## 1
Amino acid sequence: MTFSLADLALPIVQAPMAGGPSTVELAAAVCEAGGLGMVAGAGLSAQRLGEEIVLLRAATTAPFGVNLFSAPSPAVAPEVVEHYAASLAGEEGPLGEPRHDDDELHEKLALMVELRPPVVSFTFGCPHEPTVDRLRASGCAVWVTVTTPREAVYAAGVGADALIVQGVEAGGHRGSFDDVEPGDIGLLALLQLVAARTDLPLIAAGGIVTGRAIAGVLAAGASAAQLGTALMRTPEAGTPAEHRELMAEGMRPTGLTRAYSGRTARGIVNRFQQSHADAPSAYPQVNHLTAPLRAAARAAGDAEAFNLWAGQAYPLASDRPAGELVTELANEARERLSEVAKMVEKPR
Amino acid sequence: MTFSLADLALPIVQAPMAGGPSTVELAAAVCEAGGLGMVAGAGLSAQRLGEEIVLLRAATTAPFGVNLFSAPSPAVAPEVVEHYAASLAGEEGPLGEPRHDDDELHEKLALMVELRPPVVSFTFGCPHEPTVDRLRASGCAVWVTVTTPREAVYAAGVGADALIVQGVEAGGHRGSFDDVEPGDIGLLALLQLVAARTDLPLIAAGGIVTGRAIAGVLAAGASAAQLGTALMRTPEAGTPAEHRELMAEGMRPTGLTRAYSGRTARGIVNRFQQSHADAPSAYPQVNHLTAPLRAAARAAGDAEAFNLWAGQAYPLASDRPAGELVTELANEARERLSEVAKMVEKPR
């Protein structure tokens, strides 16, 4: 039996947060609490991904998901990336080689067929129908991240089992198929537009940090809420200390930027993000280009020079243990729904 | 007794849609159905506003609101507007005089004190405390439109009775205090952030077009949903035919623009909006400047040259009569909340 959202005790899915915040410990904690933990399969080798899946299975028997990035768009002209690289000359640290690769996608897909995680979710594009068929034949449910109604219709057409509907509020990368149109629709509007075009189960993502917001997306038609930013301050997450501190302060706005990766992403505004507002759409080349800069800034504790991914409601994120937090948020959502259903029932 | 949202039969407020869509007939239909109809007090004379209030009171005994624009920011340098005017030289029709005025705000406030509508809502800024006190002493509830948590805290501080929380999904003008920071937060994220800073009743606005979205914002903590775009295709609305047609087609994206008014607003993307992406922040001068252009384009039925305000979920707007529609949406919201409360109650 392919995994269904109805199999979860809690209507909560962990967002994949590649590049640091996601850990096996975090996924295990979400799984053990009754939500769906997620292994962020991007940005690490297929071998390491396989190890993380084995480690997660050793930590929990509950279902979980693995997120992969779809194949990137064709490479832009090298001059575009060279021009951006030149503009980074004043930054501390060496630049990386701006290579265009597919993040070992084929090896990772083969690994999915072999290891059969209950869910494989995709970001940055939709897998082709044969890939979807192959994964489903292996017993994996296939989820696709969408940011527009058009992407939703396309993903439904290739046989996706569910759609992750990502509103513009979301922290980290826009999951859009094409970064030229990164999708700027607010979550509540997008949920309505997508639900009008497909009957697939929808997982709502973007700016959901409280039990009330979980209640909100469920009432608006989602089958579950995907939480990323909400979990970034938990002790199980691999979020850097300086990043956690700025989240806790909650004073700065977030903004969309291509400065770090060459793909549109939302982060807490800092110096690097502001200084390089002219970054081109060139993923993954820019991502590789800035990788050593980001690593150096993280090592130095300089929060002005590495990516501070966060969704728009980040000031409300809690630092409680992940399992406790997920349980509590689900309880709050349940209580709120019961309360509001009674409130509107009573004749005024 | 000052008006309270609990006095409404339905948790629905009509959005003020100055400049055409709002009519006395629309407000009366929403009021009669049990929602809160709204008179759009901006862009018409104080005398005409008084007449509309009298006409609405003749049509319904139910409570209603009046929306006013707060005092504008100081005028920008004339060269800024002259430069923009020069860029409009290729457009069909004469340009208007780019005057800086306050839309008869003082006369309109005096009218409110005299006519005592149950609710006076403000957009484009927060009234000063003495103004709030004067209105409240006259029996008007004072509502303030906010687009950031900071604006919400400020409005609570001057004694607002409720806050209209406007997400970035919303059609028409951003209700921000200052157009230099037009507020880009998605509705669901903003509701959470504002609720964390104030206990005032919240009216959720932006991209709410279906019963499920109403259910969503109520579950997320709002006391009511404010609907604008959802009502623009109703027969009672004054929306131009070409505007209605493009809404019904639902094919084009919306985008934020200052091209028509000099203040950030969301509309269905058309030629004028795309051609004048460099419009300055200069309200109301640019609004007066383009007024004859917009009127000429409307008269000629040229939907590429007048403002097509619409929220991000506009393709789902219905053309049913407003009273019927509002009743149906409220019923759908009620049913959905009851359904989802049961769904999460049952142990999985």
Note: Chain B has a mean pLDDT of 96.
## 2
Amino acid sequence: MTGDKTARRPKAEPPKGFRDIFGADVAERRAMLDTIARVYELHGFEPLETSAVETVEALGKFLPDVDRPNEGVFAWQDDDKDWLALRYDLTAPLARVAAQFRNDLPQPYRRYAMGPVWRNEKPGPGRFRQFIQCDADTVGTPTVAADAEICAMLADALEAVGIPRGDYIVRVNNRKVLNGVMEVAGVLDPADPEKFATERGIVLRAIDKLDRLGEAGVRALLGEGRKDESGDFTKGAGLTDSQAEVVMGFVTANRIVEEMLSAALVENIEAGVPYSRFSRAMYSFDEETGRPLATDAEASFYRNSATLRHLASLVGDSKAGREGVGELETMASLLDAQGYGPDRIVIDPSVVRGLGYYTGPVFEAELTFTILDDKGRPRQFGSVAGGGRYDDLVKRFTGQSVPATGVSIGVDRLLAALRAKGRTAGATPGPVVVTVMDRDRMADYMAMAADLRRAGIRAEVYLGNPKNFGNQLKYADKRASPIAVIQGSSEAEKGTVILKDLILGAQIAASATLEEWKDRPAQVEVPRADLVAAVRRMLG
Amino acid sequence: MTGDKTARRPKAEPPKGFRDIFGADVAERRAMLDTIARVYELHGFEPLETSAVETVEALGKFLPDVDRPNEGVFAWQDDDKDWLALRYDLTAPLARVAAQFRNDLPQPYRRYAMGPVWRNEKPGPGRFRQFIQCDADTVGTPTVAADAEICAMLADALEAVGIPRGDYIVRVNNRKVLNGVMEVAGVLDPADPEKFATERGIVLRAIDKLDRLGEAGVRALLGEGRKDESGDFTKGAGLTDSQAEVVMGFVTANRIVEEMLSAALVENIEAGVPYSRFSRAMYSFDEETGRPLATDAEASFYRNSATLRHLASLVGDSKAGREGVGELETMASLLDAQGYGPDRIVIDPSVVRGLGYYTGPVFEAELTFTILDDKGRPRQFGSVAGGGRYDDLVKRFTGQSVPATGVSIGVDRLLAALRAKGRTAGATPGPVVVTVMDRDRMADYMAMAADLRRAGIRAEVYLGNPKNFGNQLKYADKRASPIAVIQGSSEAEKGTVILKDLILGAQIAASATLEEWKDRPAQVEVPRADLVAAVRRMLG
């Protein structure tokens, strides 16, 4: 090949940020999606498949005000001058469908959707521009029973795909509680929602950084501002100390609840509170550490009650705040009645996840086990799903307010978690490979494979150049084939076939001496008529 | 709402040529794809999921030589100036993958792929710009055993999704046979393949129109040309009579074979050919019509042999032609050895399907039953799958020739056929709907639904406004719900629930008198504790 010609050849690569998924990985992901779909359907959700392409007008967020729209979506101008774009999530198409078919769909409409979405973002390691979303939403009902249902369904879905109880937690919060806190802190005026918007923006971003900055860092951002290690200064929200204290009561709610629980424990003991299902464990202590022996379920029951009490005190008389606390209380009791205790679904004020977008309950599923990161350090696996209530779904289209709530499961993250824990089904075995010893007898070899398939056994004939038998066995190895079927001319004369157990063979080759290997115990010769039965025996 | 505001609202519509798929239709298509995937896997094919987006460079056909490429694909310029496009089929991405991973993939590589592809074409009724393809290809082997395998797998897939034997036929032809005919007719010179290209183009297009123009029409186009009913003249290939006769021998091969079979029948009878498995039926005649009583299988066996004989005579000494006939013969015998007789897979010279693109065997699956068209007229359903051998798959990328063969099943057409014949699984039943009589007892209703789901029964609580009970029953009806669960305050006191059999109820409402309906036999009251068992009984 001349360099000239080479230069004109296209690169055999997908675009940056796109990838291919092969064999077992496809099967694994498909199995997970099927399992989640079954859980969604059991709850009465119906599948919906919208097209990958929408008009930019319907997607709504992005306008062709420049040469081409370029705000995180892949967009182009259609021949009739309309701007089209690849969907960036499954919620925007749902909004369009809910508006378009509002007279035909059941009300409320429970739907689930699974499929690729596209983001025109800078790709990075592990960050792809096409990925699968797996959503369930209930459109057209304001009741938090719908939110509770979705949280329960999320817990069911996680267990169905192989995350055992105890290895995940669904945390629930409510956007209105934070609004109430903002009101009490004096940075939200229900009569003039636009007022203090800048301050609230800074407060929200500060709260979102609790994990990274710690309480002191967040506190600084609520006040004058914060200088980071590099010396850069971030301007704060300018709250007074008493204002900031209210917000910090929300930010540190989990720690405060822990302290309340310890204090209540001491009080209960001192007051001699009678034995009950939930307080039983509070009287049992580890002799060495002095810590209570409450089970997780028992401890989290207390935590739910204590959290609600604390949040109620934070929101004071704020109407929104009280509504939010009330909704959390209702959800907890609805979930409890169905058997979803706070060991699975717990109220947690630290859940913030884009609170600006949501209007009521928000929730997040987190895997609580640790995995080893790239550098071998243990870390919490973290969030695999999230969602919440977002009203006004179709208002853009119809002018009518339509309340909705939904969840999105991060399928690729969930798969990564299961793989990290070794909980996936593992590689499926490859096909039985019928080798070709004599290319004139291809019909016989194909008939063998057909016989095996008719018995439900995956089988294929080697279709490469059969001249080098070693290549055929290498091929079988690459295919993770459990058995090679061999029939040379002498076997054909005798009416037999040789079955080579490749799995046992590999074990022997790895462990045995050459002497042992020579006996070839992983190989049997059987009559051709017994091929199917003998293969089935060998597969076990 | 003012007209002003309405004018600024986006249209709730997908782009032209795109559509949404709901509920049962999604489930039905998914079940079909799963079934086909199982057949593909049984034959040793591995799934591959490439991304929807490729570089225009890798797709190959389309170049950004104008402002934007616009030849049937959706394309746009990426931020780094590369042109990207939505894949228009699953073969171009396979070529890219086969080149990119040529050192890692097993050789040969059997892969299947299922997913949407996009065509930037003028949409029309039933013509969509996004549709599902369902392909299987074997890359890296020149043997027609691979083509035979794919034809057999196609037959298996059709039967697996519910097309019984006898209702479909896989027709096989070979591009080389036509090349041989072209050589004999003097419009193809193997030493100078470019010569007569224009004539061959006209001949190919003429052959492709046999169905529409009939033999006389095709014959005219092979010669001087043809004037259609409107008086428009289409210039012909300008072949002499003897040249045209050779091509017509190919065009009319099926009719000629029929005549050969009749003649052979008479000869055999006159010669007293001894009884055999295949000629047996040729001696049995219907007493009234005088026609032979050969079964379809027997008749098509003769047809295969007769067709091969006729094609061999047409291609004479042409090397390509003889190779093509030989390949057809090999495929027929490989298929016969596996039990795929010509009643399922038959040699048929009338299969043309874009012969220009293919290099060897071509095949097409046709459904042979009749359905009623839009105007109530019976017509053959026609083609639902096709494919063939296309060598030089990855040559563009690597410079190396890589032979490949594959098939694509038209999933939407196949689904339409099954629906037309009433052979789909039919609508899945909707969920049991737990109605809400008392909104303060939502927790109880949700617990009922949870109990049913734990027993594997699809169930949901009505989450709309519960004030109007009639609306709840209308909702259940829209959801195709089999049972409504009802618990008002008096039932709650007694600890019972009422189960309303909505399917039976609908039947009674449709057929019975008002008197009978008043007895409400389709409704039972059971203890709350028996809810699950009673629902299960009622579901049957």
Note: Residues 161-380 of chain A form one domain.
